[in-house]
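Handout, section B. The chain below has 227 residues.
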Amino acid sequence: MLGFALAAGLAAGCGGSAEPDLVAGKTLYVEKCQRCHALERAGGGANVGPNLDDAFGPARGDGLGEGTVAGVVERQIANVRANSVMPEKLVEGKDARAVAAYVAAVAGQPGKDTGALAEAGAKVSNKPIVAKGGKLEIPAADAGLAFASTKAEAMPGSVEFTMPNPQEQDHNIALRDEGGQVLQEGEVVGKDGTSAFTAQLKPGTFKFVCTVPGHEEGGMLGDLTVK
């Protein structure tokens, strides 16, 4: 996780002469960092590590510059603390500079990303995925802590749930009732695997979620309507 001792990083710069690619930075952030760190403009994320909006928002309000924030982030990526769950060499070189520049540009900043930045990262639809022939396929999004859609619909009865996983990080799919209890749960799978289970559904509303620690909290969930 990022240590964010701001005073230790004040002298650090982004490094390199080329202008960092913010679109690449957001894409890498969603793929590599969102599983541990929340950042609202990137679509949220888990709170396994520091919330980046909370870490940098107040300091920016006190006049901390974007270049300094980028330097702090890049320094923390390059110098992982002992006993941290953050992998060493998570991103390096121009990729690390891109991630740091993106975080510095948006952390603690209100509003939403626009233009090419708005299109970067996870591609998530709000259009319901509808079960067909007793089967409901809800893929993981192409990146980040999300399913391909935030909504799904099915008729009562036996329904087979499948979740293809196109990502490098592990995910699964599970079903929660209105009280939050897990009713059925598929196995956790890696890239190109498929998590699956079959459930007997009654009319009502449910949540489909990923139960890998931190993923549901980071935004990997959706609403299932059975009618």
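Note. The beta strands are 129-130, 135-137, 151-154, 157-164, 174-176, 182-185, 194-201, 204-209, 221-226. Compare this with the example in section A.
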